[in-house]
Amino acid sequence: NHLFPVENNGLGFGGADSHPSHFTLELGFSDSLSGEVKPRILLMGLRRSGKSSIQKVVFHKMSPNETLFLESTNKICREDVSSSSFVSFQIWDFPGQIDFFDPSFDYEMIFRGTGALIFVIDSQDDYVEALSRLHLTVTRAYKVNPDISFEVFIHKVDGLSDDHKIEKQRDIHKRANDDLADAGLEKIHLSFYLTSIYDHSIFEAFSKVVQKLIPQLPTLENLLNIFISNSGIEKAFLFDVVSKIYIATDSSPVDMQTYELCCDMIDVVIDISCIYGEAGLPYDKESMAIIHLNNTTVMYLKEVTKFLAMVCFLRKESFERKGLIDYNFHCFKRAIQEVFDVRLKVQQNRKLLSQRRWSKLTSMSNGAASNPH
Ligand SMILES: Nc1nc2c(ncn2[C@@H]2O[C@H](COP(=O)(O)OP(=O)(O)OP(=O)(O)O)[C@@H](O)[C@H]2O)c(=O)[nH]1
Ligand SMILES: [Mg+2]
């Protein structure tokens, strides 16, 4: 494997080696034999639409204002995100205006291994060109791999009023789908999100994109449903602590405010722990926090795995039965562990298989070389 990290994000999660593996990697295709297949998320869209900013804000904790100084991307930047066994994928940040007709750009290979394609449209700019680009990209990608989920981020909506946002979304939705219908490709499904790096909308949208790539999602949701209904809890989220992406929640609807409160709580816990905690990781087995809000709601955070946290919302009265909640949580955690173990086994089997296939291949070619006549 001759890929090398060129940039470490420095999220401040303990020492460099204790940090989950977030690295920006030079583009390279040599790791196809390394066993684990990580779903790929592509960030595409016109120049200056905000692709790199999204990646930096969500995965590098860059503050939104700092993105003003980002330089234009001139080559594909690949980053591995594998902070937990469930959340494990690669993000490929593309330069704007990639040329599909450039022979050095092997888009077939790129799309074949892609799980989700995020197309970013700058909503503060004229989007006619962006829409035709979206159409071209989506139809190309679909031809190579019809299983890709297509996600359209109507981005930079911070400058728009609520009415304006809805109006833009409706217009873009209609035009994009009309273009597909004209090409006889109605079966391609596009999902739309209104996003901005200046609020939590980008994290929420990214959460939904990532959730589609987690095959165990229904199981996780089910476990959360069982957990909350037996514990008197109103809402529970399973969070990836580093990126603040929620990888699952129970089946009741999510409102933005609740999600924002969860993000704030995680920030508070990590910040306090970084400043006042003992040396070492700011997030570990002991990590937990209880916050009483002034509207009789209690927020309860608990560690699930090294990189996952559960954040629950419940009424003050329900929190009186904390013993029951903790017991149910313990059962939940064990169930999660079992899901992890199954996944691990599947991965190991896959690795073994590909190793066997590889050694068979090499022994065959060795045989051919040692017996030329
Ligand atoms: N108002 C606003 N500006 C944003 C948002 N996201 C990104 N920007 C700004 O948009 C500009 C371009 O951002 P980049 O992330 O470099 O865009 P890009 O799509 O990576 O551009 P290329 O690499 O050239 O393709 C920067 O000045 C960002 O600060 C947003 O949500 N709202
Ligand atoms: Mg860029």
From TrEMBL:
GO terms for biological process: cellular response to amino acid starvation; cellular response to amino acid stimulus; negative regulation of autophagy; positive regulation of TORC1 signaling. Coiled coil: none annotated. The keyword Membrane applies. The keyword Lipid biosynthesis does not apply. It is found in: Cytoplasm; Lysosome; Lysosome membrane; Nucleus. Pfam families: Gtr1_RagA (PF04670). Keywords: Cytoplasm, GTP-binding, Hydrolase, Lysosome, Membrane, Nucleotide-binding, Nucleus. GO terms for molecular function: GDP binding; GTP binding; GTPase activity; GTPase binding; molecular adaptor activity; protein heterodimerization activity. GO terms for cellular component: cytosol; Gtr1-Gtr2 GTPase complex; lysosomal membrane; nucleoplasm. It catalyses: GTP + H2O = GDP + phosphate + H(+). Belongs to the GTR/RAG GTP-binding protein family. Guanine nucleotide-binding protein that plays a crucial role in the cellular response to amino acid availability through regulation of the mTORC1 signaling cascade. PANTHER family: RAS-RELATED GTP BINDING RAG/GTR YEAST, RAS-RELATED GTP-BINDING PROTEIN D. This is Ras-related GTP-binding protein. It comes from Periophthalmus magnuspinnatus.
